[in-house]
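Most newcomers find our protein records easier to grasp once they have seen one. A learned vocabulary of local backbone shapes supplies the integers on the structure line. Here is such a record, shown just as it appears in the course material:
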Amino acid sequence: MSKYNPNIHHRRSIRLKGYDYSQAGLYFITICCQDRICRFGQVENGKMKLNEYGKIAHNEWINTPKIRTNVKLGEFVIMPNHIHGIIEIHDRGELNSPVTKESHSPVTKESHERKGVCKTPPHPIPQQPQPPKSPSNNIGAIVRGYKSSVTRQIGLLGFKGKLWQRNYYEHIIRDEKAFQNISEYIKNNPIKWMGDKFYLK
């Protein structure tokens, strides 16, 4: 599992508007099911019990580093209607990925003031001609690829509805304390499911 490295992951004075989500760092990602419908199983006695769809969601998340060699996975959990995970980008990719509309993270009020905005445009195109760049290794591409793969496989089992909420949630992990707090939050998510933001009665 990835460990926080202050020499690599610490960022100062980052403005999320126009932030390059392909640069090296740690990111806390949450992806939700459409209308927060529970598609992946249920929590029993504080433990997540994955159904067939949930197992696909789990396995595809595990496969992410095999597809994208600049990515490592930290703590993650498949919940009944959402996924929490830490993603480390350990060398620089290309281009910008979409910045998401809000953050769902066990962090301070100050951190929430830095949250991103949905569909923030990329940096202005430089005046000098630039060679083509690939967006395949940024956060937006990682999330899109994951969603697409899970949707395709679940579709083969007969699912025909809309699986995913359109956007995703992100939070940049800036220091060791945040990394530890978020890792613990993810691990304890099933235990605290009934009080979770995404819990539906």
Observations:
- The longest helix spans residues 139-155.
- The longest strand covers residues 164-173.
- The CA atoms of residues 28 and 86 lie 5 Å apart.
- Confidence is low (pLDDT under 50) at residues 8-15, 93-104, 108-135.
